């Protein structure tokens, strides 16, 4: 259930008589399959009667400090107190007020919610001064945690004014015996108040934690915590407020498999959700200890006077951290994402210096380069071609801010024979890229193994379309907001007719060259079943209707 300040208009359920709703609820076995949004006060009172129908409650407010705002929160707190404890199993509170945050926590404490399993408390803005008074974060949330410690499995604490102490952290870990997922995020910047976290002796030697997301005032005590987390599978750590020794210590612990069940590690992105650092799919090969998923999404830390730096002025030790983790987990790593300024020539040079024992089992690679690399595109091309050959099982490749000309891009992609899914975004203008000007287009063009191709914000010209090769396994193509100024309609038509004979799903967005000529080509392709046109003004309604008359599903948006 989701309650918000302004009731929704036109909600057909809310417009029904309560008697009819009562009849529906009494005869249909709802089990967490009902979502009530922006619930009015009368509806909230009505829902109190229906035990077992709902278990999840979410309070979401606007960033408003008016009297109306606090009056609304009073009704929410009152409703929570009146609800039966067994009903409150999953509670999410998102507010712009730390005072409201504390009131909700006290309400939970007063209710003795012994059935609560998931608790999320989030204050979205810093609000030391509310309604003429100074608000200081209290231990109210900790009282609520104590109350439901026996059943709590997930805890998320997020607030700009939060300041987690060693005592509070130790209390949570020692009391919540069933806690599996813990997310903490604070943007506290008062350096004088930042604590040094230490675990007390009360924390058990074996914790059930499987997920940790941490963006705190200072690092977690990794040396003492990780050995206690024998079941930890996913770890997300924001690099903010971490020093070089702290990051290197964490990487060293992970390289030594101090958390033996750990499969996924993300460094640099602040955790927001209950399930941090979870890729879409992790391979189930659990016969070996080691990471399956590795992600870096952080910015370079300012170099100290004694740090070695590269040509971009970045400390090289951060690039070594990436290479060190890849080397330590080279036998198990199947998915990797590098989205940061650290995705540079230095990083890939260090990675290719790793003494690999065997080909990497990497299946998925997602990278975002530094903007364009105007000076070293050719060097990056050579390194990436070597890396692709080191990954014979690589099937999925996503690249953003591509630093190559079309020829370089095709040469990199053609060095892999196993790619099935490729997503390309934001290519650099040719005049801004380092190319040897002597390299040829690869004879094979794009990998013929492709089944999915996405092109977004690319500059597509006639040469690009001519050298793709025949993609006879391609099933789905997504073309989004590309530059067609150097591309003829005839080349685009021939590309679909001659190069993609078996494509069935096509999506165009903001397509400047799309007209009835292209629509006619699609009409002559029996394999095409599904066409999506978003913000494509060139194609007429008559052409759309003709496609539909042929049994093709056409979706027009905008």
UniProtKB/TrEMBL annotation:
This is F-box domain-containing protein. Residues 10-57 form the F-box domain. It comes from the Eukaryota. It comes from Syncephalastrum racemosum (Filamentous fungus).
